[in-house]
């Protein structure tokens, strides 16, 4: 315990001086998208200064931003979800190396502003009230949005080419009984594919109705709720999937965090857990081929709460993040405390490594995420590898933290 | 508003409202929150234009003790901040309608608790008593209280606004909404609602 510490690194500049809701790291590039007021500021994680701004697309606050994965490095695409009930798709393209040189040779950085050209390419309309979260699927082919209108919408890319932004609603999921606060797509891991029954994509949603729901695409390409996770006694502020492959390629677990001050881990009960032989037999069967509808495996999945993390927070936990590299979990919330937890992989028990009060002084902390380190302060051999935490607060600070375990 | 939810409420006169028996001296300076900025030495008094100490510029810590710093915020001060909010239906204050009552304001940790610093999270719980049990405006009133206190109190204060138990038929729903930071933030971006709130807060000094 004594060897673990979290140390503040210099905050990203400039200070945004207003509530910032969330910061999303790019899946591969050294970029971070921070949603605040009606805009998004993209920070460079190399220089720790702004890279570009997304402004003018929304009439109310932007609550969340998500990077489109699997694009070439000179192309960027962000989806934004706003309190104005719409989601936006934005694109940015590097105008080429020539231009880059021009800028570097130019006087100071004034031209940098002009380079700052995100194009607002499409608005996704349909929700009746504030969008709370908006997120690209691991393949980039789907976007999921959720809202105070209690629904989750799934949109599919039907554009003719990558740059042709044309998205179609393929599902409107109405089973939550309250605002849907956050979404998370299951990452693309070997354990994600379950034999037969479902498509590979899997979505989890967290709600004001105190539940988490798990959604999958059935054999008829219908999105259905396969599980309701009920244990929390307050709004579930969000969900995270386990990003690290599990032994035996078991299905990734879910972590949920709530206004009740608890963080829970949920595990899918898989047939192999109950009967070791079924797994082998199951592989022989070929997906849905030849099996009549009525004989299909039940559309219900059995998710069980298998752990509760040590209690640290006295009030709402607004964010938690689960490292795909180390398996460590960090959480933060209304009390402004930043906490770090580790699982004992033998026993499955979680322990608190460190808890740091007043991470943003007296302010509430709205978000925390694991993120790779790219700045000059890190050893070059560890650049883009070493993980740090980034917290985002009501004070408008975007604060990186060095973590040593 | 065509019909009032409560057409004939009980109204207290100003002399019946709680006040401090012994008035504490009014603050003579600005809020503590801005002291650092206000009393900061201007940058033109810094090097390279100016060497060493400027004797005529007061140090910001010189204000400590003499101004607001010494007096912690107590229940009466919270009461004074919110009892003057106007009812959205009646041209009278929440204090006069007994929607806000001094005994229903709780501060944790209590004022004057030793060891409380500027980063100590202090929770202010305000229990409002809507004038009638089915008052549809309970949420708006609660929101007004929360917004007023968020505007006035330093950032280490967490404001919890609830309906007093059994005073409202949908307590839990209202309490949950008022406790939801995201909903509160979104509500303040709703022009209609913001208009109602601004009107309610107009009467606050």
TrEMBL record, chain A:
<feature type="region of interest" description="Disordered">
    <location>
        <begin position="1"/>
        <end position="21"/>
    </location>
</feature>
<dbReference type="InterPro" id="IPR028608">
    <property type="entry name" value="CIAO1/Cia1"/>
</dbReference>
<comment type="function">
    <text>Essential component of the cytosolic iron-sulfur (Fe/S) protein assembly machinery. Required for the maturation of extramitochondrial Fe/S proteins.</text>
</comment>
<feature type="region of interest" description="Disordered">
    <location>
        <begin position="271"/>
        <end position="292"/>
    </location>
</feature>
<feature type="repeat" description="WD">
    <location>
        <begin position="124"/>
        <end position="156"/>
    </location>
</feature>
<dbReference type="GO" id="GO:0016226">
    <property type="term" value="P:iron-sulfur cluster assembly"/>
</dbReference>
<dbReference type="InterPro" id="IPR015943">
    <property type="entry name" value="WD40/YVTN_repeat-like_dom_sf"/>
</dbReference>
<dbReference type="InterPro" id="IPR036322">
    <property type="entry name" value="WD40_repeat_dom_sf"/>
</dbReference>
<keyword id="KW-0677">Repeat</keyword>
<keyword id="KW-0853">WD repeat</keyword>
<comment type="similarity">
    <text>Belongs to the WD repeat CIA1 family.</text>
</comment>
<dbReference type="InterPro" id="IPR001680">
    <property type="entry name" value="WD40_rpt"/>
</dbReference>
<dbReference type="InterPro" id="IPR020472">
    <property type="entry name" value="WD40_PAC1"/>
</dbReference>
<dbReference type="GO" id="GO:0097361">
    <property type="term" value="C:cytosolic [4Fe-4S] assembly targeting complex"/>
</dbReference>
<protein>
    <recommendedName>
        <fullName>Probable cytosolic iron-sulfur protein assembly protein 1</fullName>
    </recommendedName>
</protein>
<dbReference type="Pfam" id="PF00400">
    <property type="entry name" value="WD40"/>
</dbReference>
Automatic annotation (TrEMBL), chain B:
<dbReference type="GO" id="GO:0051604">
    <property type="term" value="P:protein maturation"/>
</dbReference>
<dbReference type="InterPro" id="IPR034904">
    <property type="entry name" value="FSCA_dom_sf"/>
</dbReference>
<protein>
    <recommendedName>
        <fullName>MIP18 family-like domain-containing protein</fullName>
    </recommendedName>
</protein>
<dbReference type="InterPro" id="IPR039796">
    <property type="entry name" value="MIP18"/>
</dbReference>
<comment type="similarity">
    <text>Belongs to the MIP18 family.</text>
</comment>
